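Entry:
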Amino acid sequence: MENLTQTISNLVGILIGFAGAVGAGYFVYGAYLYLTASGAPHQMERGKSAMVTAVMGIVLILVAYG
């Protein structure tokens, strides 16, 4: 039973790391959209929204795991 608990704990750690990497990648994507918007308000808003969503997701992951 202890081996199963350790395996599940390891799997959760890997999934948390993967989710954090996805969140960071989504933040970079949002920053790219924002920086390449060339003043287009719709594109800038999409970029800001993506960055805010990524930060909220990362915070949620940290709170859930912490």
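The CA atoms of residues 32 and 47 lie 7 Å apart.
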